[in-house]
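Data card: per-record layout.
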Amino acid sequence: MERNVIVGQSGGPTAAINSSLAGVYRTAKDRGAKKVYGMLHGVQGLLEEKYIDLSDHIKTELDVELLKRTPAAFLGSCRYKLPEIHEDRDVYDRILAILDKLDIEAFIYIGGNDSMDTIKKLSDYAIITGHPTRFIGCPKTIDNDLALTDHTPGYGSAAKYIGTSMKEIIRDSFCLEYSKGLVSIVEVMGRNAGWLTGATALAKGEDCEGPDLIYLPEIPFDLQKFGEKVKKILETKTSVVVAVSEGIHLEDGRYVCELGSSIDFVDAFGHKQLSGTAAYLASYIAGEVGCKTRAIEFSTLQRSASHSASRVDILEAYQVGGAAVKAADEGDSGKMVVLQRLSDDPYQCGTEVKDVHKIANDEKLVPREWVNKDGSYVTNEFVSYVRPLIQGDVSPVMVDGIPRHLYTPRELSQR
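The structure for this 415-residue chain is written out next.
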């Protein structure tokens, strides 16, 4: 590389997102980039000319290793939607002017569906104007819903945390007996895709029965049938544990969480804030059955639990960061790095690049054949797909019994 690289992080963070950042930084420096800049709070911060020289914050190999083990977005994130090019060319001209000022050769954006929309629009405008900067997307999302890639960095670690936590909840639920039984409803992230919720099946093994029911958003949810299933299970068990996606919805399209309360917050991309599904269903079962219920939300722990990160996930996140820089250095633009599974046994996975226009604003859902007939559990094919992604551990750097992370830049803490 002859000039500089700039990298940003966007959307919801993951336990592996900073490993991709480390991969971008290390590969860009190895390939000769003079400077590697980091956007503070993604493209939204870039528009305000908020950025840092990453060399001021990543000074040693220990810093690189700490960064790979640090959860949340080190650079800060955003949910900023670029306007359509024909609606506001001035925004694009401002961004390109800032890139010219910084002498940027490659623009790397680490994110999910909405972030790939940003890469698509910027690369299109660069073609229209003949601008030389190359724009590459680096995949990231615990939701695992990006098209054309076998899986996304961040998903494996979230799945590992979810499978582990579900097993612990199941174990805990049998500690006490209640005369009318106990029903625990566990709410899992994922919006309209059930990849995370399906990962609760990983709890099942020789020492654990796994969850009794698993409901994914790909299949319409029937509240009455759900109640009947729970009652049926309580005839033979004193404890029932159910996993539900935050995005499960009725046949008419209404989210189950909307039955309990209205959803007020909608982000720049039109996504509703989904929360309260478990609470509503726990209240419903308590009323229908008269048993004790619990509502459990993993919430942000699903994406921030770096202490239980998957080694495979962290290594692949670093790998795609490096592959993004390599693609830009070799002349690609308007592309996203994807992971291509080569084999399951032994597990092997490589990278390639795909046209971001075929990825942005699309959602990869769980195949219908990976869910049982009545939509209440995932199949063995699903478990076989996800199990290789949770293998191995990444030992935190412990200081006084607590994991050490790389410090957040002072500029962010003062924002």
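Known properties of this structure: Residues 124 and 341 are 29 Å apart (CA to CA). Residues 4-154+306-361+391-413 form a domain with the Rossmann fold fold (CATH 3.40.50.450).

See the next section for split statistics.
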